[in-house]
Records
---
Amino acid sequence: MEREKILHDAANDLQYLLNRGYNKKSALKLVGDRYILDKNERHILFRAIFSENEIKNRDKKKLSQDQLKDRILSIDGYNVLITLETMLNNKILINAADSFFRDASKISKRYKKSKKTDLAIKLMFEKLVKLAPKYIYIFFDKPISKSGEFSALINEKISEFKLKGIAKAVNSPDHEIIKQGETVISADSLLLDKGKTIFDLAGSIIKEQAYQKIISFM
């Protein structure tokens, strides 16, 4: 608990600096050095803390679950699944200052299918069925190993769950996620800032599962 209190004190200082226009990496180094934070704690703060303006801008674009019915969704496939697998593996999740849930790992570019992947996919699709979107795009980062095979598996699941949509492995998923669809489904900061409307699919599932292993900055 002592380290968590220190982490929250550091988070307050970091947001103070961000609100005053400091570069995030520079501000994090100042705060991290002051509180003697280790590499993992600094990584958590980097993923969890944003300026008040960033948070307000994202809040304006958030949609509720009910608003997703009959919309075209653009899903950041690895982002959603990594977050869900983190929960299923009973590891720490971050409820960030912008209210989006994020994993505390650094595996996005080294993702590999695991024993929990099938269950994560099942949870994602069960939720999508309830949301009843008009169409879904699910994009995967092609340079990550076996993304083509993974996209083929997800396309099978789209048919199995009787949804309309397509999964693709592409060289620039961020570009495609913004270009296609009406609502961005991701917790990636760049996508949240560029998307016209946004929704935290993984976060909504995590809340329904009443998962407890969370560091909250809300």
---
Amino acid sequence: MPNTVVQSIDYRSGDSVLIETKNAVEDNHLPVRATKVLVTVPLGVLKADSINFVPKLPRSKLRAMERAGFGALDKFIMYWDDRTMSAFPQSSLAWDNLMDQDWLGLILPPKMMGNFTSFFNSRSYSGMYTLTAWIAGSDARRMDAVDDETILHAHVMPNLQIIFGKEMPEPTAYRMTRWSEEEFSRGSYSYPAVGKSHSDVVQRLGEPVNNELFFAGEHTSSRWYGTTAGAFQSGRAAATSIAIAL
């Protein structure tokens, strides 16, 4: 159901699960009843208690949520049209010489490092002048409060001009992701917290509850946590478990 937000999951009855939802566009509530429910929301949403589980989830699962780390990884995506780059032949030539390098990085003295020193070069795949700057952890969260234009001028362009030359023009279009501020993600990826047994945490996060609530997502994958592959693998495993339980 598009534009529909899950507000609560009630599994008290023992023979079915009641899901209370709200349509964000029409502002109406729609209850849904099911025998099995697969919960695939990101770990950040679970940590934020965005969904009200009735009764509360088992203590072991709640503790696992607390113990698991959930980080931020954002991208500053840039595009230059052909007309812009043709007006700056030296930078265009420098980019041509880097065509076969997927990753462009800078190693600078600490005082010069800045926040964006790794760039994914997708020109060889798309044929277009596109770069994606990566930023993670506390640096990414600090950028949440900075507007895109300031990020470009103060943090990205100085490093690009080191790679491509001083004449490197500003991109035609650009945008920063801010996953920590997204209501339905609240971050980007799970990770092992310092001093915690991550294998035990992952196991608890992925355990079914009462053979009615099943859980999937990258945070439930012991091998591929933090990746799309982990989310896919865990979803297939959970679907198999549900099929067996039906």
---
Amino acid sequence: MVKQNIIPISSDNLTLTCDVTGRYDTIYWMKDNLSLVLNNTLNSDITISNNSLHFSPVKVSNDGNYQCVATNLFGPHTSPKYQLLVNYGPLSVNVSGPGLVVIGSVITVNLKCSADSRPTSEYRWKYNNQSLPATGPLMAVGVSLKNAGIYTCVAKNSLTNISMSNTIGLNVTGHSPAPPFQSRVGLMLMGLVALSLPLINH
């Protein structure tokens, strides 16, 4: 069977060992049901020594199902598949939401945070650099002038122990925007036409 020496984390060194009982003559490795070819561009950081496969370092591109094959006079003996999933990130954090909100148009707005990470990141929020009790990828904000400001989402991967953040500005106005100039002119003309119409007596 195939054993790992540590939890696989991107940019760390990792060793997979082929645990063989009994006598064997040679050992070779397979990835995704194909013989593992070394010394090419994709696998340039992988080496084999004795019954171990070394990643220096391990990368997300190394994800896959690995097997070791031990051969002796009685033929090849293939290990069960070992699935390598390399943990990483967060590599980037994205915060989305409305930039401008008019009071009275909605009651609350949602800010959404996402991060490229394995496993899924944990999320915390800050308002004007002050920590908030809210957690999770969604942040509901009540629409009021006092809630305008800078919101920060902090994403943390508990396995890699890496944190990354990004911000979004929320602007709140207490007045609806003025209608476009063309619309105002149209309203004025309608008013003038209404005033110029003669009264009709029946």
---
Amino acid sequence: MSHIPNNYYKKRIEKLRKLLTEKECDALLIFNAENEDPSLLSWALGSRIFDSTYLLVKKTESFLFIPQWRLADAYKSFSKVPVKIIGTGEKTTMIPFILPYLKNIKSLGFAGNAPYKEMLLLKNIHLKNVENTIRNIYQVKDAIELELMKKSVRFTKQFMRKFPWKKYIGKKEIEISKMVEDAMWKQRLPISHLCITAGPRTKKTTSGFPSEYRLKKNDPICLDFGVIMNTYYSDITFCYFLGSSKKKYEKYYRSLKAAIFATADRLQAGTPVRAILRILKEEYANQDIEKFFVPTDLGHGIGTGLHEYPEIGYDDRTLEKGNVFTLEPEAKLPDGTLLRYEDIFYIDKTGKCKVLIP
């Protein structure tokens, strides 16, 4: 694993503190709940948020507000972050506990999905939305983040490539899901998501929740899976073909993968994110599968959140060095079967697009 310097998260807090001058604010207040996108606080603090949490950044000090019954977890998880941890007596109404720390604050930058009823309690303070500015900072990954993400993605791909589907013929999708969960539990790895669709269910979706459907010997299967390692997410989708389905579908799947990697080869720093929709269509055509193109869910940014910006194909941003994102378009075949291949790519320091883990 990449070595994380002792002052790594201190520098992140300082990045946020610089926004006080840039945005002419007296303080910043950032909210996140558990497993919530955008995961601004997981990025800033270097650990998953396990409850409703506010980070208050002032000119000379910073405070982390968390329900008091999670204080022990907070002291352990955020020990390397230069913040004072404050326990609140409530989870759903935390602003009253924060207001004493906002004395003499006239202008407050805010970000995150804080409940509306909480924001109303700040009505006497001038609020400035700085969320997009913070997102622009945290969606550009540095070398340490890339190494942490590579570890997560490498594990995920290795696990998925070795998955013994033939062994589970006759098992329900939900039973297979439980076996995967047990395997991850033994390694103390949180699962970010686990979707299994097999047989006729692949005509409806490639990312459905595991069902009571029993795996059959000639089924196509789609597995959309990811874990969380060192706060960073993986998100990979593979299709598998048992028995006679291999002859029926694998050639289309190879073409789908070829179109995705050809698209990645054409991307670079400065490419408009909206242009990726057009490029994908062109590469589908080059693989003679343009009539199977599905123009939705093309990909997304990824990092300390499962779904971050940019939203591939439908975003006004341009790609930057350090962006990490998925490409995951589907192909809908003549018989209605949906295929999906999803992989994670990044823009390297030279501005070229590369797959994160081959």
